[in-house]
Design brief:
The complex is a heterodimer of chains A (614) and B (374).
Chain A lengths: L6 H32 L7 E2 L19 H11 L6 H4 L3 H10 L3 E15 L4 E13 L8 E6 L9 H15 L7 E6 L3 H13 L7 E2 L8 E10 L6 E5 L10 H14 L3 E3 L11 H19 L16 E8 L9 H16 L12 E5 L2 E4 H27 L1 H4 L12 H24 L1 H7 L4 H15 L3 H5 L9 H25 L1 H17 L6 H10 L2 H15 L6 H22 L3 H20 L3
Parallel strand pairs in A: 4-5, 4-7, 7-10, 8-9
Antiparallel strand pairs in A: 1-12, 2-3, 2-6, 3-5, 8-10, 11-12
Helix pairs in contact in A: 1-10, 2-5, 2-9, 5-9, 7-9, 8-17, 10-16, 10-17, 12-14, 12-16, 12-21, 13-14, 14-20, 16-17, 16-21, 19-20
Chain B lengths: L2 H5 L24 E8 L7 H10 L7 E5 L34 E2 L5 H9 L18 E8 L2 E2 L2 E4 L3 E4 H13 L5 E7 L15 E5 L9 E5 L4 E5 H11 L9 H5 L4 H4 L4 E3 L13 H4 L43 H5 L13 H18 L4 H4 L1
Parallel strand pairs in B: 1-2, 1-4, 2-3, 4-8, 8-9
Antiparallel strand pairs in B: 5-6, 6-7, 9-12, 10-11
Classes of the chains: A alpha/beta (614), B alpha/beta (374).
Chain lengths: 614, 374
């Protein structure tokens, strides 16, 4: 007989499972954490390499030389009178500049009313204009395009990038080897402008933005680069890869950037950190681990960390290049940056297909080393296995009392699905309330309390979150299976499987989010029973709940970027993170806030119900 | 040898003025050399340079079948359109004015290549796309691209295996489509492609052994791609010194690009070849060299050619008359009579449709109504 159909063997297996359950779970958890931390250890990582054959191993000779002209143009773009801050973007100046360089220029106006004012960027009713010029390929049909974008927003004019864009446009116009059209986009109000442009380009409307339709179009976009230069003098270039919902561009784009950095001798960083060569020392390892943790945290929060992030949703590989002035001795001039961009665009021009040869899911402990999905997924798998083992254990226990009930005890057999349904429904309704009410009730909150709209939204969210903690006491009366051992076991079984499915699906799409939630949720949910000391366990559960996970992540992030904050500042940051999360969801369709509010929080509430089962 | 003796030499036939020779050391040689090149998926294009050498040595374009999968000259990324250079100094435009590409782009497939070799082409295929060789032709085949152990890549989606190639050559041998065939391949692990040959009169050269990669020679920084493979580069350098009257033989060709220059070890195979490689001239394959001796004597062709002497006592053995395969059935193309259309029974779709109509008919009117009809 087979292993599982032979009753003797099955009993032996299940006996083994129930006896060794806790030790195995603890070992798996520790193994998962150790595996994750070990990912940054250099011998376990692979060196990055260019996978796409068409991008080749040889480099073109870049001939761009008008970097200084670009800088002087930048000063023209940014006089105090025509600055972005007062009159918005100097649209006419840009249109004229692009037209004089031989591009086909078009503008797009857009407007969006945010659900509540954004205190970080100080905007509520956003109205702006995108300006873009298309450089048509002289001989090619207009089927493919590349995009180079320089965001221009009121606080940060980014004029050097815009001027470099114009200088590049003039240089590119004189070449005949372009096989794709090149679109030079200057977007206003950074992400909102990019979203409006992309929606107009692809004829979609997923976020409720109002925009004028695009007059000119260039074919399907193969790749995009976003450039942000904050000053005339640049000492290093930072590469930003994390996009919306933790999506990453193809690793070949990062490899391309790194290859050109090496060729031109430009200092390149990722997560703002330089490369180190001493991987066998403790500092070297911590440096790599810190870089990787920063990437994990940035990916987990699901927002787009550069203008490129919104392109990824349309399967356009995009990356942001940020120029940083860190007052080093060795400076990079604008001509070199122009050459870097020229080289990258020429290599992208050589592509015959979209970038697809290299990895789409990876973690970068440094620019020259990467961890692919095959290596980091087992860390999450080990944590998910704990949930499944616990569920299996409960299943065995639930099946066993059927044998003990033959001695005439008139216990009702397993309570059935209905008793489980009540806590599930109530938890999910609370989750729906957490999702909908903060934004909808902000006017009422502002009337009754002396807070601004943003604070009202955030505080309402926290209030609903805390109110959910009181649910078990109030809903016990509605439960019919109260008091039974079976009741909470069935609920825990359902909740464990539900959590396993949730975390699994999340980890597939956004590994970092799934892993961070698993690290905090799995220990408490696997070990929770109503028979534990309630007060202690309640505190532990609250401290490991999703909201506190976000708080810890905020503190860890600030530590990692070497700007540690005090508790009160951390708290303010935490509130702003919540408001940004809600805004990201409303403006760009980020899924982190709905996931946490509608699924993770109700799941956690179900476990909270189990704790207070009586 | 006098011309009279020559004409009376047994075994000569004169149909259509093609001279069939049974002994190889007659001074009057008329070789039709065929040169078929396939350029699968490399961005380099050494074959145009080959084309120049082969052209120079006497093979006309009508005897060259050129298959190019990538259009480099007219690619949008070419900074100098309609030109292809073999060296980064850009001294020689190998694309020129007179390159005739017979199979281009997506027409370069394994099927088309094998059809060209075996001659199984549809009647409408033009002459320029056919290999119109016969059993006195020497054929040179040059392949380059990406390959591996036992295969050559076509177009990113197909491969031709060494077994397929060996079988194609055997078909060619059985259909008498070649006299001798020289096969040159410049890919990674190229030697694996000639391992399986089993037809006679085949000689093969490869740029690398099994397990080795063939490397590119030099990059062009203007475009960002490599121009040519090492083996081909040195092969072409060798061919520069070959002129129509040169006596260089195959042994010299085997010495081209030793490991010190090429990093990979070139290989060759001569066991199927019936002549000694040292006696085979390069121009036998790469050029169309005709040795002509001019004589001022006149010859009187008065007596008809005597029929071949019948062997005695074997009247029941039929000597079948040899005919050439009708490679270009012109009669079929030009004087096509309208074919009688045979009557076919209706196929599934029509049957199904009629069944449906009948079913609906009976459904509506019911079986019992039928008796009113009948």
């Amino acid at each position: 007989m087979g292993l599982l159909s032979d009753p003797n063997r099955r009993k032996a297996l299940t006996g083994l499972l129930t006896r060794l359950n806790t030790p195995i779970c603890i070992v798996c958890y520790l193994a998962g954490i150790v595996w994750f931390m070990g990912l940054a250890f250099e011998p376990f990582t692979l060196r990055t390499y260019m996978s796409e054959n068409a991008m080749g191993s040889t480099m073109v000779e870049e001939r761009f030389s008008s970097g200084e002209r670009a800088l002087s143009l930048a000063k023209e773009f940014d006089p105090p009178s025509a600055c972005c801050g007062l009159n918005g973007m100097p649209v006419e100046w840009l249109v004229k500049a692009m037209q004089s360089r031989g591009l086909e220029v078009f503008t797009q106006s857009f407007s969006r009313k945010l659900p509540f004012p954004d205190e970080n960027k100080e905007r509520y009713m956003v109205r702006g204009t995108n300006v873009y010029g298309i450089l048509r390929a002289p001989r090619a049909p207009r089927t493919e395009a590349l995009v180079i974008t320089a965001p221009c927003s009121p606080g940060n004019t980014n004029n050097q990038a815009v001027a470099l864009l114009l200088a590049l446009a003039q240089y590119f116009r004189n070449q005949i080897y372009w096989a794709k059209d090149i679109i030079f986009l200057v977007n206003e109000h950074d992400l909102i402008g990019t979203q409006a442009w992309l929606e107009g380009y692809h004829h979609t409307n997923i976020t409720g933005m109002e925009y004028s339709p695009l007059q000119g179009r260039a074919g399907s976009i193969q790749a995009a680069l976003s450039l942000e230069l904050s000053s005339d003098v640049i000492t290093s270039l930072d590469l930003v890869l994390e996009g919306l919902n933790g999506q990453l561009p193809n690793l070949d784009l990062a490899n391309l950037f790194y290859a050109f950095c090496q060729k031109l001798g430009v200092l390149c960083t990722i997560q703002g950190k330089l490369q180190r060569n001493d991987w066998d020392t403790a500092e070297g390892y911590t440096h790599a681990a810190q870089t990787m943790m920063l990437m994990v945290l940035k990916q987990a929060c699901g927002r787009s960390w550069g203008d490129h992030g919104l392109f990824l949703r349309y399967h356009i590989e995009a990356a942001s290049v940020r120029g940083i002035n860190s007052f080093r001795h060795y400076k990079t001039d604008a001509t070199t940056i122009g050459r870097l961009l020229e080289g990258m665009v020429r290599k992208l021009n050589n592509l015959l297909e979209r970038l697809h040869q290299s990895y789409f899911f990876y973690l970068l402990p440094s620019l020259s080393r990467f961890v692919s999905i095959g290596y980091y997924m087992p860390a999450f798998g080990l944590l998910a296995v704990i949930l499944l083992l616990r569920a299996l254990d409960l299943w065995v226990h639930l099946g066993a009392p059927a044998l003990a009930a033959v001695d005439g005890v008139t216990e009702p057999s397993s309570p059935g699905v209905l008793t489980v349904l009540t806590p599930v429904v109530i938890s999910h309704l609370t989750g729906v309330a957490l999702y909908l009410l903060p934004v909808h009730l902000q006017e009422m909150a502002v009337e009754h309390f002396p807070v601004s709209e943003t604070e009202a939204v955030v505080l309402t969210a926290i209030a609903i979150y805390t109110a959910g903690l009181a649910l078990p006491h109030n809903t016990q009366r509605l439960l019919s299976g109260e008091g039974t051992e079976q009741g909470w076991k069935v609920l825990k079984l359902t909740a464990l499987l539900y959590l396993a499915v949730l975390l699994g699906c999340t980890a597939l799409i956004n590994f970092s989010l799934g892993f961070i939630l698993a690290v905090t949720l799995v220990p408490i949910t696997a070990s929770i029973t109503p028979h534990m000391p309630k007060a202690l366990y309640a505190v532990v559960m609250v401290l490991l709940s999703p909201a506190f996970t976000i708080l810890y992540c905020v503190f860890i992030y600030q530590e990692l970027i070497e700007a540690p904050v005090s508790v009160s500042e951390g708290w303010m940051l935490f509130l702003s993170v919540i408001s940004q999360g809600i805004l990201d969801h409303a403006l760009y369709g980020s899924l982190v806030y709905p996931l946490l509010a509608l699924f993770i929080y109700p799941c956690w509430l179900m476990f909270w119900n189990i704790l207070f089962w009586n | 040898m006098e011309l009279r003796e020559f004409i009376n030499f047994p075994g000569l036939t004169f149909p259509g003025l093609k001279i069939t020779l049974l002994k190889p050391d007659i001074f009057f040689k008329q070789w039709y050399s065929w040169y078929s090149k396939i350029h699968s998926s490399h961005l380099e294009s050494p074959l145009e340079v080959f084309h120049n050498h082969v052209y120079r040595l006497g093979i006309p374009d009508s005897h060259i079948v050129l298959m190019l999968a990538d259009d480099m000259a007219c690619n949008y990324r070419n900074p100098k359109p309609a030109t292809v250079f073999s060296h980064k100094n850009m001294e020689l435009n190998v694309y020129g004015d007179d390159v005739e590409v017979d199979y281009r782009g997506y027409e370069v497939t394994v099927e088309n290549f094998l059809r060209v070799l075996t001659g199984r082409l549809p009647p409408s295929t033009p002459r320029s796309k056919r290999l119109l060789s016969d059993d006195r032709s020497n054929i040179l085949i040059y392949l380059t691209g990406h390959g591996g152990n036992g295969f050559l890549k076509f177009q990113d989606s197909e491969e031709i295996s060494n077994m397929e190639l060996a079988d194609a050559f055997e078909q060619m041998w059985q259909k008498r489509r070649y006299n001798e065939l020289l096969f040159i391949i410049d890919t990674c692990q190229g030697a694996s492609m000639y391992e399986r040959f089993y037809s006679p009169n085949l000689m093969a050269l490869a740029s690398s052994q099994v397990g080795e990669d063939s490397l590119s020679h030099q990059p062009d920084l203007g475009i960002g791609v490599h121009l040519m493979d090492k083996y081909t580069f040195y092969l072409l350098e060798f061919l520069e010194e070959v002129h129509p009257a040169s006596q260089a033989n195959m042994n010299d060709l085997f010495k081209v690009c030793p490991q010190s220059q090429c990093v990979s070890t070139p290989g060759h195979r001569t066991d199927l070849f019936q002549r000694d490689p040292g006696s085979v001239l390069i121009t036998d394959f790469f050029g169309s060299v005709r040795k002509v001796e001019i004589t001022k004597d006149t010859i009187n062709l008065t007596s008809p050619v005597e029929p071949p002497i019948k062997r005695s006592g074997s009247s029941d053995i039929q000597i079948e008359s040899l005919t050439y395969v009708d490679q270009l059935p012109v009669a079929e193309i030009i004087h096509q009579k309208p074919k009688q259309k045979d009557w076919h029974p209706p196929d599934g779709f029509i049957l199904g449709l009629w069944t449906l109509i009948l079913l609906v008919f009976f459904q509506t009117y019911g079986i019992k109504h039928l008796k009113h009809i009948f």
